[in-house]
Structure prediction request, 141 residues.
Amino acid sequence: MRLKHSIMNRIIIGKSIGFVVGALVFFILPLIGVPLDIYFGLGLWLFYILLGVLIAFFGVMDHHPLLKFPMPWWFRGIFMGLTMHLMLVLLAHGELTFIIDKMHTFGLKSPWWTLVDGVILGLFMSFTETKLAGEGKLPLV
Prediction:
């Protein structure tokens, strides 16, 4: 399935992936025994939707505007996923530590492992948006 290559389609795909990931976090964490504050849960849901939108907008720049080096889809995905999850860890370090302690994640007790999740999710979002809706100079609709 190939959509028309446009910025709007990239945004729709990014929002959709972010909505699904945010919904999974919001609904699955309480099911596995992690008590989630409603505000933090909704904030995470919106965070993942915003991540999808930012990766969609960032996909328009396939070359760095100042330094003039190419930025392939995987670089943009890693950069945005890592940057946004770094911000998440810095802003919600205590909450993430509490969630990781409750999940018993194979001995991984640091919230900094969330950065790996960000890289993987950013790669997935960027790959999906690029393959389905294109990259570079795109029409708006």
About this structure: The chain is about 70% helix and 0% strand. Residues 78 and 94 are 24 Å apart (CA to CA). Helices lie at 7-31, 38-58, 73-91, 93-103, 114-133. Residues 7-133 form one domain.
